[in-house]
Amino acid sequence: MREKRRGFTLLEVVIIVAIISIIASVAVPYAYKMINQQRRSSTMEEMEALYTALYGDPSRGTGGYVGDMGILPPGNDLRALTQRRYDGVTQPAGTTDTYGVRYGWFGPYINSGFDQDSFRKDEWGVFYRFGDPGQGQIRSAGEDGLFGTQDDIIYPPQPVTITGSLLVNVYAWDGSRYVQNPTTTAYPAMSLTVSVYYSSGGVRNAVSLGSPADPPYTFLNLHQGQHAVVGSCDLDGAGPLPASTGVLVTFVKGENSQTICDLYLR
Known about the structure:
alpha+beta; Glycoprotein, Type 4 Pilin; Immunoglobulin-like
């Protein structure tokens, strides 16, 4: 005779359901919290990658988009990092001068993958805001998907200043030695010019300083990135001292900081 199987009693079913409910009430919020923590961490890493694409890495002498173009993306549109042309905007094609300094668009500056918009979205699928709350800052709406709430992520913490200054010390050769920052008092007939080349919206441009003003020369409001510094000097005009020239490439940092370089002319 087949033995009759015993099923669960109603009380046992109630107890099992209660246990499962208790476990779920603890596990689900914990899992949700862990997922959002991972998304937040990944979003911050993506924002740091965007920052590097925009501004480069001064410790490595790379200027990113700003170093090549001399400006922030037009209209604060991050598509400028991966597309040279978009919505009626055409960015100048990249060129390199004889000193190895770049001007114009050399993108893409960040890997967008198969989805052209993926790099512009945080891990919750919401588009970043660039230039919010301040210049050059990147903002994620965070977990709740709403901008202006406490869970927003902002990187970097402070607004970005993409320009700095460059102080150029001049060392001119007089035929036997270098003269540091020669003056028109010592050399009344001196002719001296120093030019700094920079990118103006991706187009090569230059600003020059020189005699009768005496060196050192300070160039203001230069964008972060590589710059060619070119100089020429004739200490005594048509006199016997030789004319001299020189060039150097230096990295100018932003955040209103001052970069100092020594230009040797021979």
